[in-house]
Structure of o-succinylbenzoate synthase:
Amino acid sequence: MTDDDSPGAGEVRAIRARPFALDLTRPLGTARGEITRREGFLIAVEPTGDGSDAVGVGEATPLPGWTESSEACDAALDAVCDRDGTDAPLEALRAASTPAARHGVSLALADAAARDAGRSLAERLASEADVDASPADAVPVNATVGDGPSAETAAEATRAVEEGFDCLKLKVGVRDVDEDVERVRAVREAVGDAVSLRADANGAWDREDARRALDALAAFDLAYVEQPLPADDLDGLAALRGGARGGGVPVAADESVAARGIDAVLEADAADAVVLKPMALGGPDRALAAALRARSSGVDPVVTTTIDAVVARTAAVHVAAAVPEVSPCGLATGKLLDEDLAPDPCPIDDGRIAVPTGPGLAGGAFDGLRRE
Ligand SMILES: O=C(O)CCC(=O)c1ccccc1C(=O)O
Ligand SMILES: [Mg+2]
């Protein structure tokens, strides 16, 4: 990483933040409540130096429980916005306390730097993180199926497979374990054996329920169960995995990574896979670093979002593209939003999402947002 090239190292002419609010088409049911609406801030930065005038865009879309509150995000952005010649704004934004604010500013700076260099964001992230391989031009994705009655869940899963998805993630943990087992059975029967299935309990179960659920779900060849236990129960997750090594269901950590950090999860041997949300981890750079650390420990990284708007979703696609041979990622959530900040530059075809070629996030696709 060179000094004049590193995000946050240069002087920044101006940082602006504009609030937005977007409704979901219909609520996404999870064990931690329904997600109905996303409120955040569109960020724009104008870096100084060498006569370049590339404006970078970013997005800070907090989801309380995963990130700071909307108020804390607003206050953190306020502290770095609209100040002439703000130096190293990233140093003022703590990933641990205000990850969404840091995400927004770090993405805008990285977008600007990538545009200046005429490279895609994925190329810039990969080279900053010393990834040798070239970024992928498309990334496999899972369809996201929320909680619902068994027949509804099976119908939604069938629709996703008809649209070309060969990996589905089902939300579980809202109902009791027996009902969820029946939902997974109904989906497996509806979609057949060739489709990869994941289940996400969002920390809903205690150790006894989790053991019972994983034992019963072993019959349905799940790729993994995501966050079967609360975020802090790393020892419990490690013990559940004992079954995975013996042919049971693999375990993925999501909330645990956001709450405790990637290093704690890897040190505790708590997961077969980790689910990485750039918005919850403090930025695309930090999410890629976590992915590479997981990979080097033999743990499979998966990139997803907190149901972000198009700017942060596109950034997460670039993060996923920079991870060599990445597993299906939770990036097919654009259709959950009723409206968006701009048209989506990442078409999904046959279960894969296209990575924009740049420069930056998506060439000229977000130029309307840069000028506002
Ligand atoms: O991973 C996906 O398929 C979509 C994203 C998703 O499920 C999610 C969205 C918002 C908040 C939490 C979660 C989660 O993975 O638990
Ligand atoms: Mg999850």
Remarks:
- The chain has two domains: 3-119, 138-363.
- The CA atoms of residues 100 and 279 lie 5 Å apart.
- Confidence is low (pLDDT under 50) at residues 1-9.
